[in-house]
Design the sequence.
């Protein structure tokens, strides 16, 4: 999840123009994706991802990361949390709109590899409230946004974390990998 130093995931206008990316960051994201066999999205992030990734790797100028992520996206099981999307509009993608915490807790009990969530800050806050996130991968961008959608909101209780790894990229972004303590 990309965040600003002040914990924002978007600017006041909803944009992410302040987010820095690089090939080395894409390599890190590719490693995360390779560990997962299920992708979890909120409807906003899904509406950005789904029109792009299924065919992005087929474009003539597609780079290595685009090809890798497009292939992963096309093969991974996807679950989207949304009250607006309808199941029949998205074959092969499971859409859930109720009993979300119970559904996600059930997914975590199933055999398989990791569940990964890119973006989806509103869903992330909900899952934090229900203590359903085991690992946090935060790409902290060197900017103070000041206003916009926060990643962290009011919590019922603190969530203790242990830093597993931190990586500073050449563009100034720091990836912090935490697990629940």
Sequence:
């Amino acid at each position: 999840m990309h965040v600003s130093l002040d914990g924002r995931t978007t600017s006041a206008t909803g944009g992410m123009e302040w987010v820095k990316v690089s090939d080395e960051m894409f390599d890190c994201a590719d490693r995360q994706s390779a560990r997962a066999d299920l992708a979890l999205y909120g409807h906003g992030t899904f509406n950005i991802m789904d029109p792009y990734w299924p065919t992005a790797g087929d474009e003539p100028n597609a780079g290595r990361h685009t090809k890798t992520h497009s292939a992963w996206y096309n093969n991974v099981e996807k679950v989207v949390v949304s009250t607006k999307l309808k199941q029949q509009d998205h074959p092969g993608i499971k859409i859930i709109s109720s009993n979300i915490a119970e559904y996600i807790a059930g997914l975590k009990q199933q055999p398989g590899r990791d569940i990964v969530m890119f973006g989806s800050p509103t869903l992330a806050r909900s899952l934090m409230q229900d203590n359903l996130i085991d690992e946090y991968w935060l790409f902290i961008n060197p900017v103070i946004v000041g206003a916009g959608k926060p990643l962290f909101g009011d919590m019922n209780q603190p969530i203790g974390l242990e830093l597993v790894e931190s990586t500073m990229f050449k563009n100034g972004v720091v990836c912090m990998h935490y697990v629940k303590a």
